[in-house]
Every structure is written in structure tokens, then in C-alpha cells.
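Q: A reviewer asked whether we had any structural model of the full assembly, not just the individual parts. We don't, so I'm hoping you can provide one. Inputs are below.
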Amino acid sequence: MSEQAAPKQADLVNITIDGRPLQVAKGTNIIEAAKTAGIEIPHYCYHPHLSVAGNCRMCQISVKGMPKMTIACNTGATEGMEVATHHTSKEVADAQAATLEFILINHPLDCTVCDQAGHCKLQDYHFEYNARSSRFLEQKVHKVKALPLGPTVMLDGERCIMCTRCIRFCDEITKTSELGMLNRGDQSVIAVSPGRELDNPLSGTVVDLCPVGALTHRAWRFNTRIWFTKQTDSICTGCSTGCSVKVAERDGQVVHVKARRNDAVNKEWLCDEGRYGFGRFLPESRITEPYTVSNAGFQPCQLSDSLNAIKGNVKTLTVLASPDLLLEEFFLLKQLLARTSSLGRVTVAYRGRELNDVEKILVSPDHASNFRGAQLAGLVGEDPESEYEEMLGKIRRQEIEHVLILGDRAVAQQDIDAALINGLKAAKTSVAVLTNRESPLLAGVTMVVPGRSILEKSGLLVNRALRLQHAQAVVPLKDGTVPEWRYLALLAEAAGAKVVPANVQQMSDRDLTRWYLTADSLVSSIGLSIASLKDGGFQLTPSQRESAVPVGSEQAGASPAV
Amino acid sequence: MVSVTDNGQVFHINTRGITPTTAPLVLSDESERRAQEIIQQYPQARSAIMPLLYITQEHFGLITQAGVDWVAQKLSMPPVQVWEVATFYTMYYKKPVGRYHIQVCRTLPCALRGARKVSEFLHHHLGLKPGEVSKDGMWSFEEVECLGSCGTAPMCQINDVFFENLTDEKLTGLLKRIEKEKPDLRFSTVRDELGAGLEGCPKSEII
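A: Here is a predicted structure for the entire assembly that you could use as a starting point for your response.
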């Protein structure tokens, strides 16, 4: 996977880092160059997507021929450069230890009550590069301890090491310039512009950027210690940007969300809506068993009852699919329907929305995280919104006979009204795979299947820019729930459509993904594996998208190569 | 309290100078003209930030939000960056100061040459701790970092003027004379009037 054109031979220079010969593009800074050789140079203020400030002095290196040590972040590679890091130069190691001791002079050392403890660069580097106690006996400077900078972020001035990453983020990325550094010397503090608040749509990102515990999420302060959580690398499903995130889970709850670096998608940013709303797809009140809805109320039933209710009607089935279904599920659905009937009866809930300038940096103008997946599977066309509106109109005019609702977001919140519920009620059969016991859609359906939240599923997502990414389940499964793909497979089996591998019911979604990766025309041609998707995903080209659309019937039923 | 008319606008002046709260938000045409002139001297407008801050400080008596906003708007930069500069330097007053604001340098060369004695002297004679303003609004006193006059340490700056090679005797005379003569210690006037006005302090030591 080579996204950028390989640099021309002339642009490459030969350098050595700790005696190891390397070839890097001319001008690459030494932190990045060392990274390619697996050598980590410690740093606080440097960030690959922000300008170089060079104020933390942690990334010092020694370059042969230079009279003094220099900072790696601001040193570009030139031909023949010989670099020594702390691994080989005692001088550098000593300088780094001394730098750390200086940084820690006024640090309050309140790790015991600090949210950053456990994922703090001060702790990590102190352990790794200094590991000696402070010799500072004087009174430490005291600063503001808990100052809200805005609705999302809290500042602890004493913990701050003045790396200015947060300031540079607001200056260079969001261009809102809320933050600045006031006063000087050991009295310096990060502050919001007087009379303003840090309230841009990406404001939570400054907490990710903060290498220490100076900036913390107001929503998650004192929530849990990070070492009590299980952390998973996954994908945000708030919109179709598909930002890479690291999600911390404890007791089935999302307790912390952090942006993960993915240069092709979100760099290392994350919007507040996606971050603080990450757990919103995990309803508090869950549906855990299938049941029927009638005038008599909710009656528990068997899963097979719902299958029996619609298996005879697959030919005329209308499907309202949630836009956060996995690519595997869209493909299964496509194969199920392509075997039995014509298309045009599947829609995903796609609603466009207006974005402001800051949101446009990252957020996509929709809430439909995997609508590209539905397009890729050939279920919806180029204009999903008008198809969706057309479908809503049909339901409201009560023209639908048999309907299958997949997922809580199959109908956008703002579109659920009395006419729609009546339209659903008027259908002969309406089965819904839902997770939320409070879902307003329950009023319009006859049968309910306990579904699984997107946060409980692992599988493929395709973002707006056609990047194929693998989302991991971030919370434990809820007992009794059935993921959509399993339900679709069961339905296919019940309807007698041999579209899936024989053992699909026993397969985990991971295995299912693997089956798609190997058997499907789209991905087998590329030679992908889940492992290869782990690191930033895979960029599909429009031509690959074209070839993926016709899912041939001869291919359906191919034996899984698991 | 005296009211004077300047450019058609009323200023309320008390012993501390211009009271910030009643000063109009709109600066005089003269200030606007000076600001334009200064901005044009630099290839980048933002380079003019410090002289422009002085203009607002002269107008308001200290750095105010209105002043910062005016500078930010003139230089097309975010207000917080103007605040960064204003809070970095001690010669911009962030809180009201006396009519005569004494800044005593306490950085190393001055400290070695007796800056602490200067501070103690002022503390004694004015009854003020660093950062305080006298009740009559006449004096305020602050300890600051290097003012760039290390060769003539110890030194202090009163309003805009340097007083160097300080001794107790010199300070006593200086305070008395200022009490009596109430000179205008601003850049704009000091060159013409002050050198001659303060006997016993050669001009070279004043400017």
C-alpha cells in the first residue's frame, strides 16, 4: 500500500542513527526518521501534524560535527548525517535526564488523583529516562488547579509543562485561536482568551494532545483509573469519516475515548460529538430476547417465529437498514435479496447535515457511518438520501407489505413520526432487529429480535473517502443478542437461499470477515487480511468499487476458506 | 478629579492618571494615525504589537480588554496572542498603577549590586509592598525581571524613565524631587524637559 508516490532516488539521503544506516527522504526530521528504524526518541511538544515548537528539549540528539546537542524534531536529515541518540550517547542520556528533572521542578506530583496517571508521558519518560528523585528543595510554584476552559475541557495549571500543543492545535488546525500562554517563566499558564471559551467542535482533541494531565475531559474526570479498563482500537461510527479511536471500557461502559493516529483519515483528531457521544449507540435499556408486539402487549417468542413470519416474503421484503451495519452484513443482505428478488427496496437512513467551518476539518455531513458499504454492496445508489426519503414516503402512504428493520438507526430520529409508525403498523409483517427497549420504532412493529450495537460488533466499515477499515467490538456482548449478519444468515437458510457458507451460523463475525476477505471478489483480489487493515485501513479505488457492485449469483455460496 | 477635553471627548483624570473604567472605548484620531504610521514601518503588521500596546496603555492607564481588542483588530490577529505579549512584559500594566510606577530590577546583575537594598528602601519610604499602590494614588512599586541596564546596576524604572547606579541618597533625592516637581516621566516628554529638570542626575543616567 503506497499512497504517496515513492520519493525519487535523488530525494533520499543516507543517514545513520546509532550506527544503523537508514535511507529517508531529505529533510525528514530525526524523530520520524528514527521511528522508521524502530528507535523511539522521547518528546513532549513535537507532534507530526503540528508545527515544530521545540520548547520541551526532550528530543535532544547528538549529531557528528555539530558543536552542541540539538533537538531531533527541528533537525532535518541531510546526506551523511551521523546521529547518536540516548541509546548510544551518554551525553544525550544525561541531558535528557536533566531536562526531565527541570520539567518536573514545579510539577505537583499529584499522580494519585490525576486522571492521566497510567497513560502519562511524564510518568513513562521519568521511568525510562530519568528514574532519580528530584533535588529541588525550594517551594514549588502554585497555579490554578481546576479551571474549566470550556464545556468540555478542564485545566490543571500546575501539571502543565508548557509544550503548547493545545495552543498550536487551536491556532493551526481549528484556526479558532482560543488558547494562549500568559505570563512568563515559571509563572506561565495556558489560558483561554479573556471573555471566550474553548468550545469549538474539536475541543476534546486538546486533551488527547496533552502529554501530561494538565488538560482532562470534564465529562470523564475521576471516572476510573485507566489500568482498570480494557482498551480496544476501533473506529468511530458517528459519521462516515470513520476516525480511528482507542476506546476504554469498564463494566460494559465506555469510560474514555481517545483519538488514534491515522494520517489518512483523522490524523490524530476527533470531534466532540464522536468522542463524548461514543457510548450513545449502547442503550441503557436493552432488548435481550425476541418477542411479539400486539395489542396484548409484549409476548416472548422464539427467534424462529420471526424467521417464519418473513421467510415466505423475502421476494417482496422491504429492508430499512441502519447505516452503521457492517460491510459483511450489507453483502449478506445483498446476496439474500439478489437471489430472490429485484432491488430497489433497501434503503439506509442517510440524512445530510450542515457543518460549520471547524467541523468540516473532520466531520462528514451525515450520521451514516457505513453508507459507502451499502453502496459498495450495491444495495443503494449514488443518492442515498433521496432513496431514503422516497422509502419513507412509501411507508407513510402505507404501500409497504413486509418490512424488515435492521438496527436502531434504520430510521433517523427526526423522521420518526405518527404517520411513519402508522405506515409500519399497516404492513402485514414488520420485523425489527433492535437493541434499545425505548426505541420509538417499537410502536410500529409486530416482532422484535434482540440486536447488537455497533459497539459490540467487529467487522468492516467503508468511510466516505472509500477507506476500508476494521472496527473492533469495544464492549462485551450482551447475552441473548443476535448480530444482524447472523439473523440474515438464518433468514437465508430459512428461506432456502443458499447464499452463505454452510457453517455460517457457527462462524464468529471475525471468521465471517475472513471469509469475505478471501472469498469475495472485492477483497480477495487485493489480498487483504484483517491484520493488514489494523494499521490505518486500506484505500479502495473507485474502480475497485465498480467491480465490487455486481455480486454474481455464481459466486454466492462459494465455500468459505476459513 | 479633573475633567479635561481632548479631541471632543471627556477624560476623567485623578491623581492616578486616567481612570480605566471611564475612558472611552474609541481611541482618539491621533492614536489611530500613530497606529497606522507604526504599522507601516514593518513588513508584517503584527510586528507593531508592542508600540500599539503602549498607545492603548497611555490611553487607558493600563492594558484593558478594550485596548487588547483594538490592537488585535488593527493587526488582524487573535486577541489571545496580544494578551500573550502584554502579560509577558512587565512594562505593560495589567492592574492600575500609581501616578509614578517604580519598577525595580531584581535579576542577577542588579541583585549582585544591591537591588534588594533598593527594594527595601522603597518599602520603607513608601510603605508599599511589591505590587501595591499608595492610598493617595501617587506611588506604586513592583519588582521586575531584567530591564536591560545591567551595566549600571542597580537600577529602577519610574514610568518610562531609567534611573541608574542607585544609592540610598540618590533615591531619597529622587523621590523628594518627584513629589515636589511632579515631572512627566513619559518617553514623549522626557528627552526635552526631564534631563535638565532633575538636578544632580546627569541626563545620561536618566535616559
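A: Points you may want to mention in the reply: Chain A has 16 helices and 23 strands. Residues 549-562 of chain A have pLDDT under 50 and may be disordered.
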